[in-house]
Design goal:
By secondary structure, this protein is an alpha/beta fold. It has four domains: 277 residues, TIM Barrel (Alpha-Beta Barrel); 133 residues, Lyase, Ornithine Decarboxylase, Chain A, domain 1; 92 residues, Methane Monooxygenase Hydroxylase, Chain G, domain 1 (Up-down Bundle), CATH 1.20.58.930; 35 residues, no CATH class. It contains 23 helices and 24 strands. Helix 4 packs across helix 5 and helix 10 runs parallel beside helix 11.
Length: 664
Amino acid sequence: MTTSEPVFPNPTSRRDPAHSRAETNPNDTAPESTWTLNDARELYGIQRWGLSYFGISESGNATVEAPTPAGVKTIEFSEILDGLKQRGLDMPVMLRFENLVDDRITQLHQGFASAIAKTDYQGEYRGVFPIKVNQQSHVIAEIARFGERFNYGLEAGSKAELLIALATLPSPESLIICNGYKDVEYIDLGLRALSMGLQVFFVIETPKELPMILDRAKHWGVTPCIGVRLKLSTAVDGHWSRDAGDRSLFGLTTLQLIEIIDSLREAEMLDSLQMLHFHLGSQVPNIRNVRDGITEACRFYVNLIKEGAPMGYFDIGGGLAVDYDGSASIDGHSRNYDLDEYCVDIVEAIMAAFRPHGIPHPTIISESGRWTVAPMSVLLFNILDVNDFQPQPLPDPLPENIHSSIDFLIDTLRHIEVRRLQENFNDAVYYRDQARKAFQIGELSLRERALAENICLTILHQIADRVPEMTRPPASLQSIKDSLSDIYYGNFSVFQSLPDAWAIQQVFPVMPLQRLDEEPTRNAIIGDLTCDCDGQLNQFVGTKSNTNTLRLHPVVEGEEYCLGVFLVGAYQETLGDLHNLFGDTNVVSVRVTCEGKLEFVHELKGDSIRDVLSYVEYQTDELFSQFEKRTDTALSDGKISIAQRGEILNLFSESLRGYTYFEQ
């Protein structure tokens, strides 16, 4: 028979917990589990995406493997969770590991230093962090502090970010790259900083910026350091393919570049043009795209030299990718190269392009923000509730004189066979829909409809269990298990803490932080606290490819079940919004010492309800006053007593001061 695309029954239960080990009869003898820690590592892919920073301990807890000057030190997440409780910090928490961002800065500079030494490159490398990738004060302060030994710089795309860079960088040798649209105040700030001896470069994005820069430079008597951002034609794989090419939002066309050169020559300021800048995309998964982009940019650089510009700096922008799913592929969530290959390919491509022209090797600059900070942050949240799609035991005996649709469902249940699974599936969905139609016209009672739904759900689960026995299961049956998966409700907001998971379907690694020595038996998606169907995680890192569900453990009553979302240090804290007025989470930065001790170095309470209401232009004192008048009316009407009025007002006031997320 022909059926429409199935819409599965509503869940038959919603309870906390959905499943409990406490319900197990101690006299029952279950088969001994063959589950191992290696099974957990493979299932969650931690060895593929963990970058040697994350692992699983023998006790079944997730760990951080923190680099220190005395070697790698291991800390279990259970110790971190205990520390958070002792400090009264409720979930969700954005956890930052200072050791990891320090190590990434070191690796980046060592990678280019090694490539330069191997190839006998005659220039140097200078790293720059784009503030927009993570603008949080403590993050930028740590990057500036640790990066000082490398003269690590900052890239500013706005006046606010320029102020941060000017005040934060301790080394006057660190580069400050000024990107974005620039008004007179922005330009004046950069020029005055240049006169103080700071290394400030103005990267021209549009031709209109140059006259302002030249005018203000003349006003202050300062010679500007100018760069030009190009629109390359090199095609790039992945989500950020539109960052390059003729229709990219930022950068100069070839005609506009000629206009800049001629204007500088006419103003006798061509000597100020020292930098070529381009940006292929925030996450470039294919190393071939990187090398092609470098080769194309080198041709522009060579011709700028021929035009008389001194040049000397070659800014390759961002693009060094993070392998979010651990597949080491050209998928948009991954990359098919490592750091060493990236660095060597860039250096070799520049040398090959410049060798025929005898051009001195320039200082290479990269703005590898995503790669630098993504691993340092982990979003921690607890599971509040589980919505499962398990059928209830069928009544015995079944009711008499039942509707024909229910009778057919029972018959389908009794005749499930591997060779007929597709037919069984079609019949179950068809007769369930018939029962629903009968309910709509009054032929079926509420209890009868519930019985029909429950029988159908039982059939679907039995079909799902037997699909692996099929030699070539059809697509409609391969996805049936996902359609029956649980919904685990997490204490967080996708829109606030993981906006890229919603906006661009970014896949972040997600896994439990404990009980990893136990086999997870539930297939689940993760819902957040928002009243929005988009507030969910339904794409996860799988063993071979990304999956629509995540294997999790049954929640145990009385035990907190915590998950971590990894590699979220880039953009997620900056881009979050106030959907349903869920604000910033609690934030904790930790450092692991050379002795292997865990130090909580920075704690920041998340937004209160008062905070988020003020963000959307509410005056909370006025709200309280309005509510106070309402309690006065209720008191005068005799609906509440004076004591009750005081309790209600106190509750309102306490709520204004409270955390926007679920509080235990």
